[in-house]
Design a protein that fits this description.
heterodimer, A: seven-stranded mixed sheet, 11 strands, B: 115 residues, mainly beta, five-stranded antiparallel sheet
Chain lengths: 115, 115
């Protein structure tokens, strides 16, 4: 086990709704990264938070947003859900963002279905 | 822009055989190349990783071969076992300038090891 937990496990929403996914990182891990994994595909980088500030973003629209809290928990928020947002959402934590501390530990993911 | 290409998409190997999965990358700034193993319903788990200053890294039955000039790297699983049946992802990232942790994944290889 990686010590990274995510909630909920599964979620069903309808198009246009908003959703919040949660992640709890390992204690001491200052970095959290979020990924979207469509069925049969590799994970795609959404964004990263380092010490509560955004530290880079992938090719995702602004309706994907996040927060990181001092207690090593974080959130991914998605507004105006679209059918294509249906995917497994993964969070990954690491100690830091430099060469020696960037090993990523993934949680089990949240399966989001948009109807 | 797809920056990491992985092949084959699926692979069937007999127990005791060698499984080989290949990846090619485009961005020469990448300096960290991990392989992840993912079982159904689970998040990816780090298997083995390599930096471009070495051409090979071995951990138990798993070996990464790295060819910097060709911009290619591969995973070899020796003495493959049915328990190795999973989806394998190669990935790449840049770790300098505190950019670590933003992994670019390949499309995945579904490995099935037959008893």
């Amino acid at each position: 086990e990686t010590g990274v937990t995510q909630s909920p496990t599964h979620l069903i929403k309808t198009r246009g709704q908003q959703v919040t996914l949660r992640c709890s990182s390992q204690s001491g891990h200052n970095t959290v990264s979020w990924y979207q994994q469509a069925l049969g595909q590799g994970p795609q980088f959404i964004f990263q938070y380092y010490r509560e500030e955004e530290n880079g973003r992938g090719n995702f629209p602004p309706r994907f947003s996040g927060l990181q809290f001092p207690n090593y928990s974080s959130e991914l928020n998605v507004n105006a859900l679209e059918l294509d947002d249906s995917a497994l959402y993964l969070c990954a934590s690491s100690l830091g963002v430099d060469r020696s501390t960037d090993t990523q530990y993934f949680g089990p993911g949240t399966r989001l279905t948009v109807l | 822009q797809q920056q990491v290409k992985q092949s084959p998409q699926s692979l069937i190997v007999q127990k005791g055989g060698i499984s080989i999965i290949n990846c090619a990358y485009e961005n020469t700034a990448f300096d960290y190349f991990p392989w992840y193993q993912q079982f159904p319903g689970k998040g990816p788990a780090l298997l083995i990783a390599i930096r471009p200053d070495v051409s090979e890294k071995k951990e138990g039955r798993f070996t990464i071969s790295f060819n910097k000039s060709a911009k290619q790297f591969s995973l070899h699983i020796m003495d493959s076992q049915p328990g190795d049946s999973a989806t394998y992802f190669c990935a790449a990232s840049i770790t300098w300038h505190n950019q670590g942790g933003k992994l670019i994944f390949g499309q995945g290889t579904e490995l099935s090891v037959k008893p």
